[in-house]
Fold this protein.
Amino acid sequence: MRKPFIAANWKMNKTIIETAEFINAFLPMVNDVMDVDILIAPPFTALSEASRLLKSSNVMLGAQNVYYEEKGAFTGEISPGMLLSAGCSCVIIGHSERREYFSETDEIVNKKIKTARNNNLEVILCIGESLEQREADKTFEVLGGQLAGSLKDLPLDAITIAYEPIWAIGTGKTATKEQANETHEYIRGWLRKNKDGADNVRIQYGGSVKPDNIEALMSESEVDGALVGGASLKPDSFAGIVKGAAKNN
Ligand code: PGA
């Protein structure tokens, strides 16, 4: 049985003060939820403050990105060691916005996962197809390629996969629960064929997840959680998603 895992990806939103306001409102709403793993990924600048406020809570802290070198002359980049020292236990890698706007390839994603895992950070690896690729019936081919490239020479320990169809991110269009499950089944099949321990890997769905569609998504056997953008920015909305995931456990 895989424990549901709900993660908030705040993207480039929230100052330090706004982060503190969110956490102070959110923690009492979910402090009795024990059957769901909960993670918040604020921007880098708010990590230390978030870590302080989340200490001894049931909410984990993650970052939205990391660089693949340990240290050195890489102006503007953030290393795994820095994330650990800021209190993170997890990092999101390969989000479609990083791939699209910052030219991250599967090779770069692979290097980032390796460095993150060498430093004992858990990883949420994002994959997903564009609308054009789905309509051309290329979804599985694209996902298989992303998995092969991103997970090259890597075991599956402490890795969560987030399936995020690009056409569903921030658009209000959610994949149907059947579409999500079918695609997760493909991902699970790929993992089983190519790696050990595939049955323990949690596969999150991401793309316009909200309090009113989480229960349906979680009712599918292969949907183990969600990576949530827009609807994670308000405490009551994100708490609603966490609780919706708990009910189906
Ligand atoms: P969304 O974003 O929930 O706003 O669609 C999801 C994501 O990009 O992780």
Summary: The pocket of 2-phosphoglycolic acid is lined by residues 9, 164, 169-170, 206-209, 227-231 (CB under 6 Å). The chain is about 40% helix and 15% strand. The first helix runs from residue 16 to 30.
